[in-house]
Every structure is written in structure tokens, then in C-alpha cells.
Amino acid sequence: MAHDESVNISEIEGAKLNRKHIRIMLISGMSFFTDAYDLFVIGVVLLMVRGLFDLSALQLGMLASIALFGAAIGPIIFGYIGDKIGRKYTYWITIIILIIGAIGSAFSTGFIMLFVWRFILGVGIGGDYPLSATIVAEYANKNDRGKLVASTFAMQGFGIIAGALIAVVLLYAHVPIQLAWRLLLGFGAVPTLTILYARTKLGETPWYSLYTANKSSKKDPKERSYSIKPRELLAKNWKYMVGTSVAWFLLDVSYYGTSIFTPYFTTFLGYTGIFGPTLASALLLVIAAVPGYWVAVALIDREGRKPIQSIGFLAMGISFIVLALAGSYLLSIIPLAFFVIYGLTFFFSNYGPNTTTYVYPAELYPTQYRARGHGIASMSGKLGAALSTLAFPVILTQLGKYALLGGLGILALAGFVVTMVLLPETKRKSLSETSRENEIFLITRTLGTEFEQLIGHIDKGFSYIDDRLKSKISNKEFFNLVKGEEHEADLVVHDILDYIANYGASSIAYRDVSHLAERLDDIMDRIEAIGSRFMIYEIKDVEKDMLDMEEVTEKCFALLKDSISVLNNLRAEEIIGKIRSNAIEASEYENDADQILRSSLKRIMQGTDIKRIIKYKEIYEHMEILSDRCMDSIDVINDVVIRYRYLTHGKS
Q1: 311 vs 300: CA distance, rounded Å
Q2: Which of 8, 132, 347, 390 has CB 3.0 to 4.6 Å from 288, enough for a Cys bridge?
Q3: pTM score over 0.85
Q4: Domain containing 569 — which CATH number?
């Protein structure tokens, strides 16, 4: 088995937090700063262009949401490309789109042109979501991965504030509205340009490098590629896929709607015009929203993803429902209280689900599908955000703000339920553990492909036993042939164990692979021992019991070969019955071998030639052990199949 010697996942997962981690986080975080700036600055821009373009409520909703619709498409497109051609080059494509989209938006001359450029910008933003998360996660160590990915996402807070503050500065400086909105949109290209050079120096991630190395290392074109089939992924991850996607959708429905239209909500406190609501929005973000991000960063690797997300959803739901039921009273008696509770929805969303819904998908999928898995969740979230911002102006007009806030509260509580039911805890676990990547790669591919090579050497060993017992080869030829196969088998076993050690296999996967490797290696050792006894003892006479023993052990080995072959296509419901049937049949052959051993030993012990007794006794015992080890190997495979069924389908 070939593998990339330069990539040691165990060292990466176990490393201490260092400057390289921070550098990669800052590069990815700066692009996320840009993403957030571009998405949320539209709220202020709409206040400026509404009169200039004479926009209706529907057109306002369309401009507010179109970048989000683009951001719903981008993750699927670039998540797929990122898994196919690599994170590094796909990252470059998204950055070019971000720059072009921001500049194009700034030079728009009307509603339609701005609408188109905002959509293009949104596609680039959407593509950046899965790539930034995946890149940071695949470079991170297991103890700090949560805070590194969360810190990348937390840069969103600075991007949101930057939009509001730049708007305040432009308005305070009395920059004409006709120019100010263009400067606000065009500034989105500036942060991206500043990290352009840094991205050129960013190499491919260790996890993806290892994955591609394993794909290209297959020398035999008949061998299966080192990959997971979509059906395997869905069977294993459907709960995670639903959990991450639905939670992100529910979060973004409330978060983006309230964030983009925060300037509107601040008018309830008496702010008018453009400057007042914009300044109030900036204060709200600084006081409530941004601290939430960094509290999450501080606690995510200590408290865990699941507690933070569930608490965040629950607190959001309660806050929204309080505003819906008592908001009118609060505004009439204590307006500031309304503002404080409204701010709590931002704090708890950023402390909780707004951060964790970004972290979770980067941890729960194997390398081959990690960007796509994150892309599916990102798409779901941005679709919720787009629908929310599109519908917000209409719902506010038709139903009023309190009904809207009540609906958001119900959605947040639904997010709490989804988190508790469908999502696991991933803190301080390696990516191979959180995605159970090794259980799929190592069990369905390493056992199913690499162990077939080992079985091939054992198969030849059995054929040499048959040739010797039928006097087709001499004792010396027999020994030399089985010794050669035993040496090749040792090399395969060494490579398998070395590979899974470097790959950072979970303890369960390591045990399964090493246990079966040891059992198969023992079979080959026994065959070599039989060959050496024939040569050393100069065996000439082949007894009938030897032929009977060989027939039984070969039947047992045939069942082992059949059991190994099904691991290439590990579908628990389809094969578990077959493996169990093989185990039962092999057990019968093992009993037959025991009976042959007992009868043959009884017979030879009745002789008077002590040397012959010692020689033949050893040979019979080694031949009988072959059936024992075949049976042991089938039992290991049976355990693997049962465990895989549990991991992918739950208890049954």
C-alpha cells in the first residue's frame, strides 16, 4: 500500500496551537470579513438608494435578498469543485468573483444592473463559506479546531460593523448620497485585494493532500479508487446532513432578516432619516453582536458545540417571543428595554447557532465530501436568509412587527429541538473521529482492497500445500515458495499498520484493521511453518489424514476469502446474514479439523518411531491451526460488519 509519507495526520491533529494556525485563520477570516461586509452593508445602502431608484417594497426585498440567493447557489457549486480539484485553486476562483462582484455593484446605474451584480457577488460569497471552513478545519489541531474555525467566522462581526461605521463616517463627512452608496459597495473589494498575495502562498490542506495521494497511489487499474460512494455517505450521515442544514436554515431566517433590517427596527426608538438608524445599528452590533462571536470562540472547545448551539437557540426563541408578546408595552413605557432584548437576540445567535452552524459541517463529513457537505448546509442557511430578507418587508407591512417577531421565536425554538435530536458533540475530537472517516475509508477500502492482496498471498500458500501433498513439488521447492509468499505478506501487513498509524485512525478502526491483519498474518506464518517442517524433517510419506485436513482447511479459507470480498461493498443489511452464515459453516469445518487432528494424533501415537511421531504431530497441529485462524478472521469481519451497521443505521 502506497501512501504519502510527507503527510502525518496524527502530528497535525496533536500539534499545539501555532503561528501557522493563526495565519491560515486570518487569511480565511479576512475573506469572511469581506463576505459579511458585502452581505450586510446592503441594509444601509437600501436606505440611500430607495429614493434615488424609486424602489418599491418588493424591489427593496429583491435587492436585499438577491446576494443571499446567489450565496445559496455558490456553496453547492464551489463545494463540489473544492472536493474535485482541491481547496487551494477553488479558493482562488471565489476571490476573483468577490472582487469583480463588489466593483460591478459599485458602478451599477439602476435597479436591474445592481440586482445582477449583487447576485454574482453572492455566488462568490456562497462559495467562500464551505472553502474557508474546510481549509481551516483541515489545517487545525483537534484541541483548537473549534476556536480556529469559529474565529474565522467571527470575523463576520467586524465586517458587519465596518459596513455600519464606514456608512456613519461617509454620512458624517457629508459625502453626497449619490456617491456614498457606491463607495460602500466598492469598498467590499478592498479587504479581498489585501489578502490576494497571502492566498497565493496558501498550499493544499494536509487532509486533502493525503486523500489525493491515496487516490493516485493505486497502481493496479482494476483496484477500486480510494473513495466513498454517495450512497455510503448518505447512509452514514443523513442525520448530520439534516441536522446541520435545518439548523442553519432556521438560524438564518431570523438572523439575516433582523440584521439587514436592523436600521428599520431602530426607528421604533425614535431614530429618523439615514444617519440615526445607521448609528444605532452600529452601536447594537458593537455592544451585542460582536461580543457574542468571541464568547463562542472562547468557550467552543471547552463547553462544546452542542451546548452552545442549543442554549443560543433557546435564548433567541425566548427573547423573540418576549418582544412579540410585550414589545408594544415596552416601547410605550421603557423603549430601551425593547432595544436591550432585541440586542440579546444578536448576542445569543452569535454566541450560539450563528457560529456553531458554521463549525459543525466542517467536522462531520469525510475529506472526499467535506466541502460539499458544508456546501449543502451553507446553501440551506443562505436559502433561509434569502427567503427571510425577501419576505421581511412584505410581512412587516401585512402582519406587523410583533407577529413577525413571534414567528422568529418559534423558528428558534425549532432549532433548539433539531440540535438536541440530530447533532452530536465534536469537541476535542480528531476529524477522523468526528466524521468517522477512518471507519469508512479504512474498513470499506483498506480491509476490502488491501486485505485482498494479503489474501492473495495466503491463497498461493494453500496452493503450494496442495502441490506438495500431491507430490508436484519437492520439500525444498515447497519451503522456498511459501517463504517467499510469507515475506511478501509481511510487507503488506507492515504497510497496512504503518498507514493507519500515520493516517490518524480512531482506536476502533485501528483495532479492527490491526486485529484482522494479525490473524491473516498468522495464517501465512502457519503455512510457512508447515513448509519449513516438510523441509527440515524431510517428510516423504503423505498420509490420507493430511489430505483430509488440507481439504477441510481450504474450505474454511474459501469462506474467509468470500467474507473479505464483501468488504469492498460494505452494505450491512445485505451482507450481515452472509457473514454470519459463513461463520457458522466455517465453525463446522473447524470442528471437522479438530476431529481429524484428534484421530490422526491417536493413530500416530500408536507407532514406535518417536521421530516420526514428533514430526507428524507438529505438521498436523500447524495444519489444524490454519482452520482456527480462518475462523478467528471471519469473526473479526463479522464484528466489523455489525459495528458498521450500528454506526450508519443505529441500533437495530
Answers
A1: 12
A2: 347
A3: no
A4: 1.20.58.220
